Amino acid sequence: IAKYREKRPLLAGNIFLRLKLLMTWSKSAPSILESLVLLLVVVLVQAPILVIGCNSSIEITLVDENKNETHCRSCDLTHCDLGFGFSVRCGGTYPTDTRVECVPCIAGTNFSNVRDYSMCQACTICGENRLKTGKCDVEKDTTVCLPKCNEGHYFDNSTAKCPACEKCCHDGKDVHVSSCAKISGKNCKTRDPCTTAPSTDSKEHLQDHPISGWKIAFIVTCCLLVVFFVIVVTCWVKPRLRRKVLSRCRRTLYRLRSRHLM
Questions:
Q1: What's the CA gap between 191 and 180, in Å, rounded?
Q2: At what angle do helices 12-28 and 32-51 cross, to 10 degrees?
Q3: Strand arrangement of the beta sheet that strand 69-74 belongs to
Q4: How many CA atoms lie within 13 A of 66 on its CB side?
Q5: 3 state DSSP class of 90
Q6: Residue 211 needs a FRET pair 20 to 30 A away by CA distance; which of 18, 39, 113, 227 works?
Q7: pLDDT tens string 145-170
Q8: Would the pTM count as exceeding 0.70?
């Protein structure tokens, strides 16, 4: 059972009684200076009683506002096992109805590797896209953040973060990163938008594929030849076909007319 050491506030009547004695004495005192000295002594005597509190290193302060009372609870009364932490911070101030107990740590979030009255400690966080070794469970944290990043990102020593690889601007201000070399077209550090607008990417693309221009010219030429052939056929063959059809129609009409006359 937890034992509490109670600190009750100084009663107002005690202060008023001392002030009354001071005033009675000052009437017969030879000087005002002696009265001021006596008043200073009274304040110095009462001050330690008014500010006295719990030991912030090994006790918890529990305050009952309704009764205007303060209780001090020793942290040594509770020792949590591995994987458990104190529900409150030793040295803190809480209401008297606060539950002071051991609570389990959360795997991947916090841990406790000691048997005492300390709270669970936060696990090591390496940051997004950063590689790491080890893990954090409720009893220990073996996480080690490596100066390496996932594919498509590079490690920035100044910020200990992993920004994404970006396209190069080819304006003389690019900073190439070896870890981004495998990313086609994106092997530079993150920076402000390119200040120039040269079509360097398109030039590099044409240099890598010089035959693409000849392919386009060949396709255009073939299309023009096909169109020309269709035009020639239409203009040359269609009139001859039309004359042939008209000739047959005339012969047919002539035969029909001859039979009708007979």
A1: 14
A2: 170
A3: 4-7, 69-74, 59-64, 93-95
A4: 3
A5: coil
A6: 227
A7: 999 999 999 999 889 999 999 888 88
A8: no
